[in-house]
Amino acid sequence: xxxxxxxxxxxxxxxxxxxxxxxxxxxxxxxxxxxxxxxxxxxxxxxxxxxxxxxxxxxxxxxxxxxxxxxxxxxxxxxxxxxxxxxxxxxxxxxxxxxxxxxxxxxxxxxxxxxxxxxxxxxxxxxxxxxxxxxxxxxxxxxxxxxxxxxxxxxxxxxxxxxxxxxxxxxxxxxxxxxxxxxxxxxxxxxxxxxxxxxxxxxxxxxxxxxxxxxxxxxxxxxxxxxxxxxxxxxxxxxxxxxxxxxxxxxxxxxxxxxxxxxxxxxxxxxxxxxxxxxxxxxxxxxxxxxxxxxxxxxxxxxxxxxxxxxxxxxxxxxxxxxxxxx
Amino acid sequence: xxxxxxxxxxxxxxxxxxxxxxxxxxxxxxxxxxxxxxxxxxxxxxxxxxxxxxxxxxxxxxxxxxxxxxxxxxxxxxxxxxxxxxxxxxxxxxxxxxxxxxxxxxxxxxxxxxxxxxxxxxxxxxxxxxxxxxxxxxxxxxxxxxxxxxxxxxxxxxxxxxxxxxxxxxxxxxxxxxxxxxxxxxxxxxxxxxxxxxxxxxxxxxxxxxxxxxxxxxxxxxxxxxxxxxxxxxxxxxxxxxxxxxxxxxxxxxxxxxxxxxxxxxxxxxxxxxxxxxxxxxxxxxxxxxxxxxxxxxxxxxxxxxxxxxxxxxxxxxxxxxxxxx
Lengths: 327, 326
What we know:
The complex is a heterodimer of chains A (327) and B (326). The N and C termini of chain A lie far apart (51 Å). Chain A has helices at 5-30, 46-51, 68-73, 78-85, 118-133, 151-162, 182-185, 210-225, 251-260, 263-273, 279-302, and strands at 60-63, 102-104, 109-111, 139-144, 167-173, 176-177, 180-181, 202-206, 231-236. Chain A is built from eleven helices and nine strands. Helix content of chain B is 39%, strand content 21%. In chain B, helix 9 packs across helix 10.
């Protein structure tokens, strides 16, 4: 599928929504206004934005850390996202999950898992469900390069390859595993070479270039839909924030990526070059997105705290009719 | 009622549930082909249902359990086989952190209707990595249910209930019971999860137990009957939810209690049960709560040493005498 101008603009709006929402979240968190633990996807937004035009609502998305962009790209409930970030009862997970375990099942989306690497086997399971259903759905499974050092990466992808499951495994190579450089914990430069172990395609692309990701992913998604099995897509990117609030990443390195490799700036220039976007339209989109984020933040702020008794709800679906009690 | 073996009862439940609901499928290591499962439980099922619904997997416990969680979340009803309960350690993230927590962490959006079938293989001499049980570890995992039937009737009825349950269930089969026969009715039935069963009524002492030790407790009761001691045997059947009501009714009636379980006494299922009885019924007790369980060791690969650590009717008899004499 070739992208139309409208598609390209919609991707841009998604990209901007992720950027502005995640930046707002990060700023509020640093000021102590948001509770819990957050892992923003700032710097990595091109990947969810590109996939937003490749996946259907009936497809499955499973991510590891920094999945907030995927939640937004899947059009997960935006206001309830912000209520969740504030830990409120109206949150998409009733305040129980928080930013690092985002789920919107109306969008078949698990956009977070705080066990690094759990995504690789869960994504395989999503692909298995899609395969058993036989209706042409696929699973897209996202995780950082650090998580590819878990055994689950091998177990999940080997399983998917053996069973030819419709999964695109996407490595969001963001250069740091916790506070270690990728080169300190990997002996290969590219994760995609690991695809040779499973006899499946493995492609490395510029993970900050929306259209490059789209083009590469398009073929892998089509391949999965046709029942030809899984693949690995490696997107080279950079996380602008580390795994806490202490910002121990090299300042110059972060600034280099922000100045020269900002996925939003790069995509904006590209759209201007293609005459898809002009400055007036850009301003309109920025204004619209800013307003949307502002409204969602305001909504989240004024939502209600959960009551203490809700702490013991939602553990089980089915309570026994007789005999033992669960909680 | 037909007399059938425990292993056949498990297989019948799997087969009937697969016929009833096309969303049910099986996955595990060598569960089809020539082997039909390490203990032949799935004999003939791949032939009948094909290699997609009876899916043989790589030797990858994390992928088996993780794929089951993912497939369950997105609408299927997987029944995964993990050969030995020791191997649950290889997929404990998928059970403890994923299957057990997804519903809660998603604020009730997610259902994880999956079953992990596994085995306790305590009485054989295959050593510490094949023999053992992680029952207490599972009980300490919020969000999952744990079932351990002792008879063919309970095995079939509880497995059906487990497959139909919308929560993740770990279903523990005992290899020492696979060859045991018992009555199983024709047609469909469920044994509800979370309901204990008084397998033998008595008035002097209650033995609270499950799995293969139900049968050892009944043997102990028969021996002590001749000595004039009347023993009640409560088969828990489910470890979580645990049927406190039935346990307490029995204990309040007899006033004496022995809790018998395989595996280390330290932190085992009996620790929880004993504490619950002490909290809820201490005024009814006429003797100490006695736990009959193994020392805190791994299991060896030598018959003499294994026997030294295996709980049987004699240990239970000693336990009963201890609570009566005190």
